[in-house]
Amino acid sequence: MSRGGTMPEIDHTHDAAAPSWVASANDAGTEFPIQNLPLGVFETERGTGARIGVAIGDQVLDLAAALDRGLLPGLQGMAPALRADSLNALMARGAADRHRLRHTVFGLLEAGHSRSAETSGCLVPMALVRMQLPARIGDFTDFFTSIHHARRTGELSRPDMPLLPNFRHLPIAYHGRASSVVVSGGPCMRPRGQALGMSGDTRYVPTQKLDFELEVGCYVGPGNALGETIPLDQAEDHVFGLSLVNDWSARDIQRWEAQPLGPFLAKSFTTSVSPWVVTLEALAPFRTAPRRPPGDDAPLSATLTSTSHARHGAIEIALQALLQTGQMSRDGLAPTPIAQPRFGDQYWTLFQMLTHHASNGCNLRSGDLISSGTVSGPERADSGCLLELTAGGREPLRLPSGEERRFLEDGDTVVLRGVCRRDGFRTIGFGECRAQVAPANQE
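Now predict its structure.
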């Protein structure tokens, strides 16, 4: 467990050789080995309501059922949080309890546990569950932290000054709409809005430039009181865990409305998130030093720098965006990868985002969602949105079906994936963040 800026702890729960008695958790290709143990909220057809579960292989461990059978010794004090219908109460308890939960569940699922037969009755096949939002999200803040994304999108609208002067000094963000955050699997309905026509007239129409944005989000843990700040070396004590985020964007609406106050209706119609939350403890082996372009100075603000953060403030995640058109689906063609950026290339880290967010005394609350903004790599081929990949629609993507895409069309499905890899450790994943584009409502 990391406290006060110390090195994240790597312990026996990260041992690559540790097997589980859940056979599917030992498969080489699983995203959910025993070394991961992400948390989520699920429902079944049995009508028991929303419950907290842990992903293990192709199964879900029902924590309430495990408590009922006395399989989680030492965690009775956490029982109300573990029996809840969202992760908020668990998020509020902080890193020490999350650490205790991880160790207890790891021991329960590790090969050779004496009560494995009894515990198997607490497993539900993933194929039989409906995943829910992991938390009641009170606030959603979307950042803008990839220098590659900022530069390439800036070149489309401000070729004389693609990167604004403030980008290197602070993590830029806007407050999003929490009510329209939906869990993976739900559709993205094409929004209507006001956009500027080719002849300079304004029109209220379905967006013609619907885009995805590949992002990584974190859920706030205990949070801070109004007026208090969160020092950088304490920021990770307030990060519960990470998920994938698709911040859907209507580029034509965005371009017209964003001057001078920034995104509004072009972003607030839908944001998709993956259902599983990978805890900070599971990510300990994949912490790394933040990477910045050669010659870039450290941020000017002392609140955004520390010796500890410079050693392990970033998290290395291999990300992937895939696209499947309606035609590809009918032809039996799988989603095709269109971008593979790395989260470690972000200019600002999640911990810097959280610290900056609270630096004016803004109170962050358990379950709040903070997202990284589009994750893009140094090369345009690894851009996390179509706006970059197609140079604003001028250079369409060519797909295996022979189709082209400048922006998303009805029936297209976008799939986001992310995995963490490091020699000597088991690969862990985040599951999918998936959604299909649905037609706009008819008026």
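Residues 12-132 form a domain with the SH3 type barrels. fold (CATH 2.30.30.230).
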